[in-house]
Write a structure and sequence with these properties.
The chain is mostly helical and 324 residues long. It is 77% helix and 1% strand. The protein has a two-stranded antiparallel ribbon. The two termini are 16 Å apart.
Amino acid sequence: MLFIEKYQKAFVNYLNEFTTPKAPNSLYEPIEYILRLGGKRLRPVLTLMTTDIFNESYEKSLDAALAIEVFHNFSLIHDDIMDDAPLRRGQQTVHEKWDLNTGILSGDAMLILAYQLFENYEGHTFKALAKLFSKTAIEVCEGQQYDIDFESRNDVTIPEYLKMIEYKTAVLVGAAMKMGAIVANASVEYQDKIYDFGKNLGIAFQLQDDYLDAFGNPETFGKQVGGDIIENKKTYLFLKALELSETEQRDQLLKFYTNDASNIEDKVSNVKQIFNESGASSETNIIIENYTEKAFNILDSINVSSEKKELLKQFGTSLMNRKV
């Protein structure tokens, strides 16, 4: 998708200018490190694309796109600390490569740097961006706390799980798109609609990520397949399997998630079998399609050219059909 590559290239060039060496090195090197680790650059690309779609130069939203990416990576540094994760995108996490205190402080600095980037906008644009960012940032924190709380709960419901991924993941996708619309000076109605489009696409994206964690190709997925199962995470697949399983199968699934497995490969294989036999895997694919279709229906109500709508639909479809 060549049009995506255009936005990615422009963003990475701008990012490289941002991550020039600064003092003290021990504060800024970890920031440069995490930002250069790559990733999908999904959120900043959506910011630039949205500005373009509403007939403004995407270059005007580079600072907003960078703020989104800096904030996203700030959250990853702190998530990795909370999870005691050794690897991020196949490389050492910041707190492992440096130390815990550096990870905390560099992450804090990234949050402040993200806010600073909005200062490059004037008046009402600055105010609208900062207000949206503050709302989104606190929701992401709330989503992270829900996720932590779920680890010690055995009564998590599907609506609760969907709310958690909405806050932890999807609101940032919606905000990325709304920021592009704000910079383009789109109407408030269309700002809100493109936000809802992005939020629904973000929910579908996370559900697809959950599915790929269990059923993705190890050669293309980019991280350990079955990681959520090994860590006993209560994903949509797990919760749906509990809902759909017969008593014996349900008890087996709960046993796998409450006892330490002596053979990890057997645990992953058996849980995946329950996901398939219960119908949870097919139900997960259905809800992914439902959220994607909901996003596309919202997009149809926005008055932009059909050509530009098609670009967003292609992008959304590619996210849902991805293998990584």
